[in-house]
Amino acid sequence: MRMKGLYFGMAFLLALMLSGCGQEKHVEKSEILMDTVVQLSATGEEAEEAVAEGLARLHEIDRAAGEGEDSDAARLAAAAGTGEWVKLSPDVYHILVVSQAYSKKTGGAWDVTTGAATALWAIGRQGEHVPAEAELIKARAHTGWQKLELREDGSARLLEAGMKIDLGGIAKGYAADAVRKIYEAHRVKSGLINLGTSSIYAVGEKPDGTPFRMGIRDPRGADAKAMLAAVPLKDAALSSSGDYERFFEQDGVRYHHIMDPATCAPARSGVTGVAVRVDGGEPDAGLRSDLLATALFIMGYVRGMDFLAGETGTEGLFVDERGEVYATDGIRSQME
Questions:
Q1: Distance CA 239, CA 153 (A)
Q2: What's the CA gap between 71 and 112, in Å, rounded?
Q3: Which has more pLDDT, 32 or 15?
Q4: Which segments of the chain does DSSP mark as H helices, in order?
């Protein structure tokens, strides 16, 4: 399917109303966490408890998988190249186990060890710039998923001094899975787990029985809120990635935050936006949708569409530099 002038930024469309049945409650809360605004909504008898526990769980994951001095990423970087094994939190260890499996599966398009490149470019932060070639060569020497080793006791190490992991493209998806488990334990019938709009999980349908719908907008339009299409989401994760999220321009060139591990520079695959939906019945649905949104952006739509054909319960959508859209059948048939 082809459509002109689109890209993806997931609009968080909340249209929840109190059901008025029995003791069911509807609760919505938001906080700044994981370097973004997270929004949790839930409907059910234990909705308040589910949302409170969900936010507490997000704080816990943010401490372990964030960028603080005591985070697992910081401790791994400090020990990089020393041969020391670093004991990780169960959360980060699981993230890295799945991450390494998909690094192999995607031929390195997904790589969590791009931290040196992310820090070098500093896109979206003070000091963002186009690095010199010598700096890029150094960053490439400090990148490579094969240089991250894991042990079954929950520890890991980075083999080269100067290496860093970057969990920005995977941690929010994992966090969505974690909150979803809490919702299930509290029998939440309807809810949205929105982690900065780029990683969303929908539990059930809206209380009125209609599906949640995530908006697709025109990135170059005068009104950034204009919705050009929508995708239904029910008991599934949806993640997006694009060159519109964090970027700067220099000499007419847009430099975005999605690093190609092979070049340690912004990916140039001919794609400007990707959205990935993974059914909730799949293992690590949120985590997989999150990392695949990045990996498929780096692959480009030709290679990416071939890859998706081998992924169960997974649908994807790509926008290229001409504004044309390529989608798998499962999303294409449901777009409005």
A1: 31
A2: 15
A3: 32
A4: 47-65, 72-79, 90-105, 115-121, 133-141, 171-185, 285-299, 301-308, 329-332
DSSP count for the chain of H helices, then E strands: 9, 18
> Residues 6 or more apart from 312 whose CB is under 8 A from it?
282
3-state secondary structure of 245: coil
The candidate with the shortest Cα–Cα distance to 29, out of 65, 53, 4, is: 53
For residues 26 and 291, the answer to whether their CB atoms sit within 8 Å is no
d(CA 32, CA 36): 6
Task: Summarize pLDDT for 232-246 with one digit per residue, the tens.
Answer: 999 999 999 888 888
* Confidence band for 215, pLDDT divided at 50, 70 and 90: confident
Region label for 5, one of left (φ > 0), alpha (ψ between -120 and 50) or beta (otherwise): left
Say if residue 177's pLDDT is above 80: yes
Amino acid identity at 18? L
Closest CA to 204 of 191, 187, 185: 191
Q: Is 83 helix (H, G, I), strand (E, B) or coil?
A: coil
